[in-house]
Specification:
This protein is α/β, with parallel strands linked by helices. It is 43% helix and 21% strand. The longest helix has 24 residues.
């Protein structure tokens, strides 16, 4: 095979992720790059091949006939490569467990607690990587995935419940006071009218508003700022740019430090966090990590006056 005939592998990787997830946003999150970088790779691939691989309609992406053909070939090639990697990889018991965790949860909740995890799970070596949404354990080289269960869970996965999700608006303390005041109380800072949205969960604010009691709704947030990830929304809220809607786990450190407040508390949104791995691969180390995650997330909820 002449590898010079192949387009850049990076563009094929971006194409496969978008085709599999049906979303540029989700693909960018899974690949840990910007949406713009993924879109650029797709354009370069289509230009190199001289055909359209996607149809863009209704704010989504859909494979053309050529795109379906290429996606099938990419899937087969990746499965073959994954099988080869599994064949030469060291046995699971002799290597670190690779744990994939959603980026903001990893940054603001899990990483600060890694020393406690390592102390509680003596002898368990973990390699932490960031990732969101669906996983392919063989292709991605992942043993465990800590995820919010907001996507289709596959029957060939083993899924362990960890903790329920709680969401709530967070803002700088002074800004939160201004936001809660009625408009008739006087002029508000402009940031008190801004809702900070994460592109990775675009319906989060809409769902939260829909669940707010009709007689107890705070002042509306008529302006919006969209950022690519929740960790950017949290930093923007800490910087006083607006009000973010955040998970209690993601915002806990900032709330405990006083950088942010949750003036309306936290509300369960019906989803939850789960620990996933391929069926048949559970061992004592997986059980230890699962038990620790359950205990640590329950502790976070208790610190915020919530029940697991």
């Amino acid at each position: 095979m002449n590898s010079e005939r192949l387009p850049p592998l990076k563009s094929l990787q971006a194409f496969e992720a978008v085709a599999r997830m049906g979303s540029v946003v989700r693909a960018a999150d899974a690949l840990h790059v910007t949406q713009g970088a993924v879109s650029k790779q797709l354009r370069q691939l289509e230009e190199a091949l001289g055909v359209a691989l996607f149809e863009r309609r209704n704010r989504g992406v859909h494979l053309t006939a050529a795109g379906q053909q290429l996606h099938q070939a990419c899937t087969q090639a990746l499965q073959t490569l994954a099988q080869a990697v599994d064949a030469v990889r060291a046995p699971v018991a002799t290597r670190p467990l690779v744990l994939s965790c959603e980026p903001t949860l990893a940054m603001h909740w899990l990483i600060p607690r890694l020393p406690q995890l390592q102390a509680a799970c003596a002898g368990v070596q973990l390699h932490l990587v960031a990732g969101g949404g669906a996983v392919d354990f063989g292709r991605d080289g992942i043993d465990l995935a800590l995820r919010r269960n907001d996507f289709a869970l596959q029957p060939h996965w083993q899924v362990h419940a960890v903790a329920p999700e709680y969401m709530g608006p967070v803002a700088q303390p002074a800004l939160a006071q201004h936001w809660l005041l009625p408009d008739s109380a006087g002029a508000k800072p402009s940031a008190a009218r801004v809702a900070l949205h994460s592109a990775t969960r675009p319906q989060a604010w809409a769902n939260w508003w829909a669940g707010s009691p009709a007689g107890n709704r705070p002042a509306d947030l008529p302006q919006r700022m969209v950022l690519e990830h929740f960790y950017l929304c949290l930093q923007a809220a800490i910087s006083g740019l607006g009000v973010a809607l955040a998970s209690v786990y993601m915002a806990d450190a900032a709330v405990q430090a006083g950088s942010l407040v949750a003036p309306l508390g936290w509300r369960a949104d019906g989803s939850g966090y789960v620990l996933i791995h391929a069926r048949g691969l559970e061992d004592a180390r997986t059980a230890q990590v699962h038990a620790w995650l359950q205990q640590a997330m329950a502790q976070t909820l208790a610190q915020n006056g919530l029940a697991p």
